[in-house]
Amino acid sequence: MNSPSKKPLILWILWFAALNGLIVLHVVVGKGVPLGSNPASEPFSPVLAIGLVAIVLSAAVRWFLIPKAEKPETRLTLMIVGLALNEAAALLGLFLVPPSFPETKLTLFSASLIGILQFAPIFTTKEKAAKSEFHQV
User: Using an 8 Å Cβ cutoff, are 117 and 19 in contact?
Assistant: First the structure.
């Protein structure tokens, strides 16, 4: 059932679902992309800081932990953790940031979108190409 040729497809499906889930959530629940500017009275948002920390942690998972992972199961687990961290940051912006702070909402949405895009499982195609080159020798 889980043949080696289907494993990259599973990663692509998970990534695509997370990406589309983020966009659909913001369109349906958040009523689209927030426009406008924040009031000048609130220069620092702790929710923004927590969300950005989650996104930085997910980037560390993607660029430092996934390349070092030996087993495909470990890579899958790390990918899910990274995607979840990005989704968590987006959900923080969607539900905990008040509507009067559209710049903060847009920052968390944009950063989460970029964070999810970096998890595109291109590492599976590189691994597959390396294995096919190895078997040809």
Answer: yes
Other CB atoms within a 10 A radius of the CB of residue 87 amount to: 19
Residues 34-77: pLDDT tens digits?
A: 777 777 776 677 888 999 999 999 999 999 999 998 888 899 99
pTM (2 d.p.): 0.83
Which residues lie closer than 8 Å to 122 by C-beta, 6 or more apart?
Answer: none
Query: Which 3-state string (H, E, C) describes the chain?
Result: CCCCCCHHHHHHHHHHHHHHHHHHHHHHCCCCCCCCCCCCCCCCCHHHHHHHHHHHHHHHHHHHHCCCCCCHHHHHHHHHHHHHHHHHHHHHHHHCCCCCCHHHHHHHHHHHHHHHHCCCCHHHHHHHHHHHHHHHC
Q: Are 37 and 103 in contact (CB under 8 A)?
A: yes
